[in-house]
């Protein structure tokens, strides 16, 4: 049974460790000394070190307490036994009854059966697991945090021994099991659309920590404080630059990030580790390892994204401690670069030279992670794929297919050719779209079609001018809410909406009120899990149940517009009574502001989305109350066919270009015309050229789409003869087809429509 292991024990152990590292001996000799030292100081019956060898095998390299004959003979696969478990999960484990752990594997040659307790940590370097360090005790005992943290610190030192090729040859360390030069393909998740080709730049800002144990804790604290100050001012510079560049939400993200940098808990844990005797670098790294270990099993996407932000910050702090200002070294960046990272924060992405950055490949992250939001706004294709760092070497040729979530590593020449052609075609098309930007949006037979944009970030706004769109047909106000860490107050909302109106200039903007819930949960909003979130408490339902929430948003919109035109749209309205309820709240806010002498909007237009089919049977009662109606075809399709839009098994099962959907749409066109209500469609359909053609054939004259769709849709409509299409479609509505896609495509081809 060991005595109490505390901060003083940890300091003593680390001081001896420093002596071992400063002394002479081969890598193996030093490792043996380290292992004996740990066993003695931690009063452990066993201390063993396993090192990762080629083919993902963990070999026992040194032990105190197990049979010495097992050294270099006992081997475990990653995932095998508790040691393999620690390696595969890359996180520490502390067990008071190791044999009861599901991964326990008994290896008789080591003679380890009498040991009940085990604490082990991964030996990590960069993002890779290089081995595992474990201690074992015969008795059943718990481990204190200091013990695990001290093991983690020592593991960092051992990682350096491995990396400096003192234990295994460098070629073996870098071997991944695959012959390095063979082409490979990774299937992952598409996170930001587009194709990119370039050379791999491994984003590995974690620097080698040369010294783990400090001579003088006070001096280290000073060094840490100085680095913190320079980092803060560098973040302030970035914020400033983001403001100047009109980056909008990325700026908000950076601000959240700045908050992290001032987080007391984080800073005090680092300072404590320095007081225990670590160098500033080792302390920052240890706190990060510990945070990662404690948070890595959490699946909550919000927490995981915060973890990524913290990693970003840690890396940045390490750069400052090393006297560098950013992880992106301009001189070594190729002209066409694809960044490869385990994870990355938004600020780190902005460190790289935008003019050379072609794509991003992440091992971790979700489409809603901040770095992806920023990448999409910058039009950088992103794919997430596990194991990327193990398979890619710096400057490997890479192709990122952000449309299909594919990555081609060192692609063969024919694949490179095919992609170069696809990339070139993409560029040619973009040029063509730019050329028609200022041409009228009118069909071949003279029917004007209004193209509007779907936006959700300030960074999207420059597209309004660049694409030639006539206005914003859908501003998804929930996106700024989703990237924040708390609910923005009225003032913050007012400022944001005012900037949107300012930047849109004389082009109209339709603000959709908060459409959260379902797949768009706000991290700071309680609500609890729902069995059927798409049919659950979402959008205007939340606003009507929590009127103060909706009123605050409406107030902010009215304040932002003061004296200028404003259009407000409510999402997910299922019945007229809901529209009336929402409208009442708007009227209350109008009254309240009038009483305060705030100028009303010069023109207030109020509308709703039609996404829930029940509303189709209340159109005569609804339409007289509306200024406009916009079809949310994404949700309307989902509810019409009872097919979850987020489930890959059902989302493509039914086609939006089917008789039932087109009948519904045609009815909406007719009813809105009768009541003189403007009608538009703002679901994904509007941005797909073939679907947009059908919509125009049905009678839609306003389509709202994401910015990249404007060029393709405008090209299509300028080549379209609407009269011919209407005639052709009149025979299609009542048929029994599953889909009209092929028929419509044939029509387009026969009539020279450019898709
Ligand atoms: C829709 O449902 O079609 C729509 C535009 O809204 P969202 O995709 O934001 O749900
Ligand atoms: Mg919707």
UniProtKB/TrEMBL annotation:
GO terms for cellular component: cytoplasm. One of its GO terms (molecular function) is phosphoenolpyruvate-protein phosphotransferase activity. Residues 26-172 form the GAF domain. It is found in: Cytoplasm. InterPro entries: GAF, GAF-like_dom_sf, PEP-util_enz_mobile_dom, PEP-utilizing_PTS_enzyme, PEP_util_C, PEP_util_CS, Phosphohistidine_dom_sf, PTS_EI-like. Its EC number is 2.7.3.9. It catalyses: L-histidyl-[protein] + phosphoenolpyruvate = N(pros)-phospho-L-histidyl-[protein] + pyruvate. GO terms for biological process: phosphoenolpyruvate-dependent sugar phosphotransferase system. The keyword Metal-binding applies. Keywords: Cytoplasm, Kinase, Magnesium, Metal-binding, Phosphotransferase system, Pyruvate, Sugar transport, Transferase, Transport. It is an enzyme of class 2 (transferase). The keyword Metal-binding applies. Its cofactor is Mg(2+). Belongs to the PEP-utilizing enzyme family. NCBIfam families: PTS_I_fam. This is phosphoenolpyruvate--protein phosphotransferase. It comes from Azospirillum cavernae.
């Amino acid at each position: 049974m060991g005595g109490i292991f505390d901060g003083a024990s940890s300091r003593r152990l680390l001081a001896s460790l420093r002596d071992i590292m400063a002394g002479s001996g081969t890598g193996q000799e030093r490792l043996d000394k380290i292992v004996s030292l740990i066993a003695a100081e931690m009063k452990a019956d066993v201390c063993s070190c396993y090192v990762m060898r080629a083919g993902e095998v963990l070999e026992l390299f040194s032990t105190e307490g197990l049979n010495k004959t097992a050294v270099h003979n006992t081997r475990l696969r990653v995932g095998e036994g508790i040691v393999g478990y620690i390696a595969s999960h890359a996180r520490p484990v502390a067990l008071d009854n190791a044999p009861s752990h599901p991964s326990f594997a008994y290896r008789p040659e080591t003679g380890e059966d009498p040991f009940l307790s085990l604490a082990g940590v991964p030996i990590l370097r960069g993002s890779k697991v290089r081995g595992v360090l474990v201690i074992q005790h015969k008795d059943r005992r718990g481990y204190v945090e200091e013990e695990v943290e001290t093991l983690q610190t020592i593991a960092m030192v051992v990682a350096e021994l491995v990396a400096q090729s003192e234990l295994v040859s460098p070629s073996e360390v870098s071997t991944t099991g695959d012959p390095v030069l063979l082409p490979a393909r990774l299937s992952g998740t598409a996170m930001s659309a587009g194709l990119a080709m370039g050379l791999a730049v491994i984003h590995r800002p974690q620097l080698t920590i040369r010294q783990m144990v400090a001579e003088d804790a006070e001096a280290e604290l000073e060094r840490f404080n100085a680095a913190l100050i320079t980092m803060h001012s560098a973040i302030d510079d970035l914020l400033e630059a983001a403001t100047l560049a009109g980056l909008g939400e990325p700026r908000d993200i950076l601000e959240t990030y700045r908050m992290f940098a001032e987080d007391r808990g984080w800073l005090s844990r680092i300072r404590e580790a320095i007081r225990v005797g670590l160098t500033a670098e080792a302390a920052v790294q240890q706190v990060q390892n510990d945070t990662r270990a404690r948070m890595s099993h959490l699946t909550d996407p919000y927490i995981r994204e915060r973890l990524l932000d913290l990693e970003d910050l840690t890396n940045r702090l390490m750069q400052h401690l090393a006297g560098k200002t950013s992880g992106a070294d301009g001189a070594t960046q190729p002209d066409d670069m694809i960044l490869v990272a385990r994870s990355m924060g938004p600020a780190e992405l902005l460190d790289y030279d935008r003019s050379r950055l072609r794509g991003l490949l992440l091992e971790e992250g979700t489409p809603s992670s901040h770095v992806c939001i920023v990448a999409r706004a910058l039009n950088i294709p992103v794919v997430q794929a596990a194991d990327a760092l193990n398979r890619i070497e710096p400057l490997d040729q890479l192709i990122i297919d952000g449309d299909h979530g594919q990555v081609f590593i060192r692609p063969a020449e024919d694949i490179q050719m095919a992609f170069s052609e696809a990339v070139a075609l993409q560029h040619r098309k973009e040029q063509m779209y730019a050329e028609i930007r200022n041409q009228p949006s009118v069909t071949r037979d003279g029917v004007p079609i209004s193209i509007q944009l779907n936006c959700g970030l300030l960074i999207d706004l420059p597209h309004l001018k660049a694409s030639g769109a006539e206005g914003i047909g859908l501003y998804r106000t929930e996106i700024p809410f989703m990237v924040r860490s708390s609910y923005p107050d009225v003032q913050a909302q007012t400022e944001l909406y005012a900037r949107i109106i300012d930047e849109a200039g004389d082009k109209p903007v339709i603000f959709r009120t908060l459409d959260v819930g379902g797949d768009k949960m706000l991290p700071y909003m309680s609500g609890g899990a729902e069995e059927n979130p798409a049919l659950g408490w979402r959008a205007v339902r939340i606003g009507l149940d929590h009127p103060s929430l909706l009123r605050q948003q409406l107030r902010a919109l009215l304040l932002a517009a003061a004296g200028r035109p404003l259009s407000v749209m409510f999402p997910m309205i299922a019945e007229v009574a809901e529209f009336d309820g929402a409208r009442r709240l708007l009227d209350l806010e109008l009254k309240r502001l009038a009483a305060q002498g705030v100028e009303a909007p010069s023109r207030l237009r109020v509308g709703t989305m039609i996404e829930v089919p029940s509303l189709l049977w209340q159109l005569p009662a609804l339409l007289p109350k509306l200024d406009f109606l916009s079809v949310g075809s994404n949700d309307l399709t989902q509810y019409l066919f009872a097919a979850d839009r987020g489930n890959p098994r059902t989302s493509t099962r039914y086609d939006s270009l089917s008789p039932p959907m087109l009948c519904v749409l045609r009815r909406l066109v007719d009813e809105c015309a009768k009541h003189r209500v403007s009608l538009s469609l703002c679901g994904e359909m509007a941005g797909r050229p073939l679907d947009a053609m059908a919509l125009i054939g049905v009678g839609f004259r306003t389509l709202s789409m994401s910015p990249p769709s404007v060029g393709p849709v405008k090209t299509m409509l300028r080549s379209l003869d609407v009269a011919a299409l209407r005639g052709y479609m009149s025979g299609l509505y009542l048929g029994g087809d599953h889909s009209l896609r092929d028929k419509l495509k044939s029509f387009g081809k026969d009539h020279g429509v450019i898709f």
